[in-house]
Amino acid sequence: MTRDAASPPTANPDPTGGSRDGWRLSRRDLLRLGAMAAVAVGGVGAIEITDRLLDDRTGDSTPEATRIPSMCQMCTTACGIIGHVANGRLLKITGNPKDPNSQGAVCAKGVAGPSVLYDPFRMLYPLKRVGERGSGRWRRITWEEAYDEIATRLREIRDRGKPEEFAFQQGRNRSSDIVSRFLNAYGTPSHFNHRALCSANRRAAIATTIGESDWDLGDFENSRYVLNFGSNWAEAHQGHIPVAIRMMRAREKGARLVTFETRMSNTAALSDEWFCVKPGTDGLIALAMANVICREGLWDRTWLETWSNYPPDKILEHVAQYTPARAEQESGVPATTIERIAREFAAAAPECTTICNRGSQAHRNGYYNDRAITMLNALVGNMGKRGGWCWHPRSSWDKKAIPEPEPVPDKPTARSIIAEAKDWPLANAFAGKMKVAEIIYLWIREGRQKISALMTYNADTAWSWPEAQLVRGVLQDEKLIPFHVCIDVMYSETSHLADIILPWATYLERWDIDARPPQGLVDYVSLRQPVVPPRGESKDIREIFPELARRIGGGMEAYFPWATTEEYLEEYFRPVPGGFARMRADGVWMDPTKKPHYEPHTKPLTAAELDGAAEDAETGIIYKGADSKTGEPVAIGIRIGGVALRGFLTPSRKVEIYSDFVVEKGKAAGREVHPLPVYEPIPSHQREFPDDHLIMTSYKINVHNAHRTMQSKWLQEISHTNPALLNRATADKLGIGDGDWIEVTSFRPLDPAVPMGDGSELGTLRTRVRLTEGVHPLVIAIAHNAGRSVGGAYATNGKDDAAIPGYGEAADPDLDRLWWRGAISVPQNDILPIYPDPVAGGQAYHDTVVRIRKVG
Amino acid sequence: MSPEHDAAALLRANTAVLRLAARLFAREVDAPLYGRMLATDIRWGTGHPLVDAPDATRDEAVILEDMAAEFCRLFIGPQPVCPPYASAWHGEVKLGGRPAHAVEALMVRHGVRPVIDSRDAVLEPDHISVELALLAHFREAAAADPTRTGERAAVRELLEQHIRPWSDGFLERVADAARMGPYEGIAVLLWNVLDDSTVPTASRLP
């Protein structure tokens, strides 16, 4: 032996080097140590090689690829996909032409699925932390150990009679049936989602107005004019591909597209006109357009008189205060432009529609903004009409026709203060689940609700939540969160703070019954099925939850009588002609007898429906039966022009321009809610802005979703940086040049209606500036899906090895191709304040006041 | 000792190291293996080649848990320091890339397959443990019957095309990163076995 045997081998820190001085053993030592190895390895389970081949080993290494239909889940849109599989390996992903929503189209995120499935750094085994929480020290455990420990913990909480102390935090959940089944069977109401970080204000505004749905589905393909208030459908909208393909077809047919947005997004770039607006003034622009439409008689007065619960003249009276001149003063959009567009929009009616989303609703006044925008459609009478502003009552499949297999557990009777979020009048006023996600961890920290166990599922709250550092602090604190199980595909800031990590199967390895709001206005149902088996020891919750239920016991297990997920889905899809087998073959089914959901309110009630019904002589509302819980009569329609029609599903059975319902909800919460669409200026913006004070907005990069795609090597290579976008004129005033470093300091809103709304300084980040004319002069825009510190070298632009205690540099030689190492990637979420709209609770992503300073 | 005996002893030693390495890179050290390693009364300089000296005085359950955490850190992750797959070391974007296909094709040609225990963290045929187990298998077969040229060719192919292109970097990484347990020692041992001049090399290929 030539090596100094007492010292460890000297490994070359340079992986490309070849120095192994001191490693060479003499032949004698090699023999001696080899003999030792023989003793050590004997009978202890080394891998053996056999010539007994398995049946499926044909030796043919290049068979034709099998096409397996399924559904994407790289974002929320859930487009139909085809997995092309050969030799058990997914080769590529294309779109499924049979999917009525996406019609065979698939985006960059969708085709990048294999890079997640086969990611070298994916979590593939159950892990249990060994060191302190957050130390990054883990050991592999068996599923048996994981199940036992989790079931023991959860059983103890349930047996204590405190099921609400088990909290389930989901991110993007496309398995809602099995999640609800498990949580309801357990009895916990502490089911937390991220809706307030997504679309809560918009949903509340739509539900207030039409009752039947909280999601508008403009009939874009047949429209001649689309008014877009801050929807980035070309890049990041919830209906991304289904909307985009229809928008582009409309454009090809000559439709006009006008976009109001603080930033020149790709959607803005695809528009005929783009107007750069001050954040939070979208609703005022819409009200000014309403003013023009009403004042100039461009409205559909007959339709309004028939279907609005508020008379046209009263609407005119209300919107008189919102003049185009006032809107120009606040928003920056010229009054003459507002007038012109209002006239063009009305002239195209009823083949015109609005679309709005994050740009209009993710504000402190987001609910009112979207109320005003929605009202525009009522004014011109396009609601429910071909080419107009439409909707569908089902946000997924027809659950009456395809019901959940029995036995289905009842909803929990226990209460959750956090889930109820009673401070926000409309957060839980409509169908759906808890909608004030921003306050979950603040309220846990404040001790408003005790949590004994937390299960996070596809939810990287520790990175993607506003004030993410507050979330991390709560997750780190074992007194606040005594037990944390994380179910996810990739390692993240949240799994870093777990006690047990359960490796989740990707959407390419698991089952779901699924569907999205039908952009074609006919509901459908889809199947997500494994295109390849789960890798490693990863499992889906459809396997995890039934097993946990059996081990927790206490009756839970009765709700999981199926031996396999396939057996469960076989039963679920029984109502579909051809059943489960058809779904496996096609991936999707749509009832061919169903027609597009146009003007559902005009549908006459049948004689059978009217049998036994009673009518209110004053309002014409037709009632039948009584609500089993409240005893109140149940409205089934309204008499219009002597005909009994279905009407809208609002309390008045009409479009509610004026809503008593929200006023009452406000009173119950101790907050004033306006019955009409109004412009409510953002309090912390009502001030003089010094040159160095700006409004920080956020946006999504087009190849990334909110939290799961940064670990994709393919997508991260395409887009991996988020410099601050700053208007050139603003930068000139501050002496800032392109590429300069700046410090961005954020402030909480000075707003008593917002938690911690004291105007105090919140946080600071340093980044570089990209100058552009494509952003409002008062705005600094930063993409918020960036700035990871954990999650692999690709997700963090090479940073993660320094940030994970105890971890050395990752050993993937592909890192040599990490040409974007060190690129700017800043965590905007850390300096975004918790900032819910006081009415509906949706997060105000675009209202944070910041101070910027050139540094370095 | 005759040259034949010497060669046979060396073969036994080499294949034992290959199999032990295959075992250690595939799964955590468990009590039986730990016991056997401890039982080998052999020293490397002043210490045991596979068991850290202080460990012998600690509770075995604690030692095993520490070694399990070390195995996890090195080979499992999150974000393993030493991914044990050739695909990762060849810069493939995804696991199960071309190196895995090539090993699979080799196994198909020779009519063999690995028997993977459910406890083994082995997903693809280009896992270091599969490649080492194959090498041990073909070396023994070739030695048992020198007329079996296919096995000798398989040994050469495994070494030249599948193992050596990434084993140096992998073993250096293991030796550098390992903080405890048998990983540093087995890396050095394995490097010697793979570098053994008795193994056919490219220069000796026909």
From TrEMBL, chain A:
Protein name (database record): Formate dehydrogenase
Statement: the UniProt record of this protein carries the keyword Secreted: no
Organism field: Actinokineospora fastidiosa
Keyword Ribosomal protein listed: no
Renumbered residue ranges of the record's region Disordered: 1-23
Keyword vocabulary terms for this entry: 4Fe-4S, Iron, Iron-sulfur, Metal-binding, Molybdenum, Oxidoreductase, Signal
One Pfam match: Molybdopterin
Molecular function GO labels: 4 iron, 4 sulfur cluster binding; metal ion binding; oxidoreductase activity
Recorded family membership: Belongs to the prokaryotic molybdopterin-containing oxidoreductase family.
Domain 4Fe-4S Mo/W bis-MGD-type: residue ranges: 65-121
Record Gene3D superfamilies: 2.40.40.20, 3.40.50.740, ADC-like domains, Dimethylsulfoxide Reductase, domain 2, Formate dehydrogenase/DMSO reductase
PROSITE patterns: 4FE4S_MOW_BIS_MGD, MOLYBDOPTERIN_PROK_2, TAT
Entries under InterPro entries matching the protein: Asp_de-COase-like_dom_sf, Mopterin_OxRdtase, Mopterin_OxRdtase_4Fe-4S_dom, Mopterin_OxRdtase_prok_CS, Prok_Mopterin_Oxidored, TAT_signal
From TrEMBL, chain B:
Domain of life: Bacteria
Protein name: Uncharacterized protein
Native source organism of the sequence: Actinokineospora fastidiosa
Gene3D superfamilies: TorD-like
Pfam families the UniProt entry points to: Nitrate_red_del
Annotated keywords: Chaperone
